[in-house]
Amino acid sequence: MAPASLTLSLPRAPLPPPAGPGYSVAACSHLPAPSRGSGRRRGPGIALAAAPAGRQGGRWRAGVSSFSFLPSFFTGNKGEKDAEKAMRLKEELLTAIAPLDRGAEATPEDKERVEQSLFAGLLSLLQIVQQLEAVNQVKEPLKSDLLNGKWELLYTTSTSILQPQRPKYLRPFGKIYQAINADTLRAQNMETWPYFNQVTANLVPLNPRRVAVKFDYFKIFSLIPIKSPGSGKGELEITYLDDELRVSRGDKGNLFVLKMIDPTYRVPL
């Protein structure tokens, strides 16, 4: 379209894509500085809303946890506390990945420092992600409207997407997007400058948060359709979801962090 790596990796040059399983369902560019506020905002920044949200009447409403109907003395306001913790962890995560150019500029030493030790006084990236996943309030993301739309890739560990072994001018340096529509079980990854490649896939639910991905068509320069080989497949698990941020893990061990940019976008059938 974040580890059996569901990197939907796209072809990097006007050649037929490889037949191997190196494609991953993930799909993002320099991330903006995180912003605070109670309101929800689309566009360049990520407004750190206090709780997950859903769509209603063209606007967003605060999401509700599975136990929101219980009196607070039973839940101990756990939903509110988790939402506040998620807001803080999202801010730390965005700060940690900001200098890494989606991960392409991270050397092995950078990755070790970020993922296994402290980074700028913050928790390690891996710890932040794990704690964010632990306060995920959307327990069944494949049933949530929050999943539907176009997402921008902020960070990934997938080398098949980042192509760090190539000279920088041959890598995809424009934004990379992934769109998912859970209602139609379709996914799409889209590169921008310089190759504008695309790939679409069918999704097969394995459980309420994990899907098998079967790629069907690639498009070189968004123009030349190529049918995917039968080996083009993978799996993707959505481990954190709200109206602004999604964390996914692929079947090859890769991590993907994405932000929502257009909840109205529909993947072509």
Q: What would your notes on this structure say?
A:
Helix content is 17%, strand content 30%. The chain contains five helices and 13 strands. The strands form three sheets. Strands 5-6-7-8-9-11-12-13 form an eight-stranded antiparallel beta barrel. Strands 1-2 form a two-stranded parallel ribbon. It has a two-stranded antiparallel ribbon with strand order 3-4. Helix 2 (78-97) packs antiparallel against helix 4. The longest helix is centred in the N-terminal third of the chain and has 20 residues, at 78-97. It is globular.
Helix content: 10-25%
Largest sheet: 8 strands, antiparallel, barrel
List the uncertain runs. Answer: 1-75, 117-122
User: Strand content of the residues, in percent?
Assistant: 25-35%
Residue-averaged pLDDT: 73
Structural class: alpha+beta
What overall geometry do the principal axes of the alpha carbons give? globular
Order of helices and strands: EEEEHHHHEHEEEEEEEE
The multimeric state of the shown protein is single chain
The termini sit apart by 15 Å
- Count of DSSP helices? 5
Q: Taking strands numbered 1, 2, ... along the chain, how are they ordered across the largest sheet?
A: 5-6-7-8-9-11-12-13
DSSP strand tally: 13
